[in-house]
Amino acid sequence: PAGTVAEEIVTLREEVAELKTDRDDLEERLKRKQAEFQNYKKRQEKQRKKERARATEALVEELIEVRDNLKRALEQDESADIREGVEATFRGLEEVLEGEGVEPVEPDPGTATDPTRHEVLLRVESDQPEGTVADVHRPGYEMADKVLRPAQVTVSEGPGDAGRTEAASDADGPDDGDDDTDADSPD
């Protein structure tokens, strides 16, 4: 019986040693996989940066053409009518932006305001329904469902009503020309 216990202890020690070796091997493999994954993430980020740089490079190349056209327009004789050239250059810029998927945000008067796409500058009397866009001060732009710059708008308070301000002052009481604060002061 003592021999069997000793044999069992030896067997268990061998199994423990084998399990430790397997564990060490698995830990080493896990560390290698983690390192490989970290390297993969770094390579992917580097690739994304290159792609962004290429996309930016292509856009800049197109904008350089627009810049060159503007410079040529400015180099014209001061007496030259450059409006036609500037309009053509503007159209070229619009085409570049459109090609990049940039869309203007220019809400029509009467459109409901959208706080994610519109920046309200002030409220004005307008023929438009109350709380809607009265006018666009500066267009906004969006690209790929992301607002790059919100449109600056004025918002309607509704149609002007001169009688409304008179009615408000009548609510304070009739104006008999005598100020109530003077009633307490001795003459």
What brief labels describe this structure?
187 residues, 3-stranded antiparallel β-sheet, 3-stranded mixed β-sheet, 6 strands, disordered C terminus
Spatial extent as radius of gyration = 38 Å
Tell me what portion of residues adopts beta-strand conformation.
Answer: 15-25%
Strand segment tally? 6
Low-confidence stretches: 162-187
Would you list the SSEs in sequence order as H and E?
HHEEEEEEHH
Tally the helices. 4
Work out the oligomeric state of the chains in this entry: single chain
Write the layout of secondary structure elements.
Blueprint: H1 2-74, H2 83-99, E1 102-105, E2 118-124, E3 133-138, E4 140-143, E5 146-149, E6 151-156, H3 162-170, H4 180-183
Parallel strand pairs: 2-6
Antiparallel strand pairs: 1-4, 3-6, 4-5
Task: Report what the structure shows.
It is a single chain. By secondary structure, this protein is an alpha+beta fold. 55% of the residues lie in helices and 17% in strands. It contains 4 helices and 6 strands. Strands 1-4-5 form a 3-stranded antiparallel beta sheet. Strands 2-6-3 form a 3-stranded mixed beta sheet, with no helix packed on it. A hairpin with a 2-residue loop joins β4 (140-143) and β5 (146-149). α1 runs antiparallel to α2 (83-99). The longest helix is centred in the first third of the chain and has 73 residues, at 2-74. The chain is elongated.
Brief summary:
The protein is α+β, with helices and mostly antiparallel strands and 187 residues long. It contains 4 helices and 6 strands, in the order ααββββββαα.
